[in-house]
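Worked example

This section walks through a single chain of length 132. The input is the sequence exactly as stored; nothing has been trimmed or padded.
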Amino acid sequence: MRIQRIDHLVLTVTDLDRTVDFYTKGLGMRVETVDEGRRVLSFGGQRIHLHEAGREVDPKATRPTPGSGDLCLVTDSPLAEVREHLTGLGVTVELGPVRRTGAMGPMTSIYVRDPDDNLIEVASYRREPTAS
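Given that input, the structure is written out below as tokens.
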């Protein structure tokens, strides 16, 4: 057996509307409604399924907790534009741009937090300037 890719992951959140707003307006994802009204965020060929804390869908993680996520999302946009867009929406960039190593090699990243304080790394495999 060989695993090919991640299809989706699940984030447990405190406020579905606030989370959808952040990921759609801030990160350009699409929101979809599936399976009896569940909301999912779609981008590329992946999804983030959203579970509201206290109303998770079974089966679920043993301890679903808002704010426990740490995700790296890849963009093909210049990080300077991403940073400007996010700060224009009032999102604080905690770190970056900084050099990191991702699944495909060297990349440059910035770090922000979503409404539940999940750490969101936005990375680019382009050659980009980094903070010194």
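What to look for: The mean pLDDT is 95.
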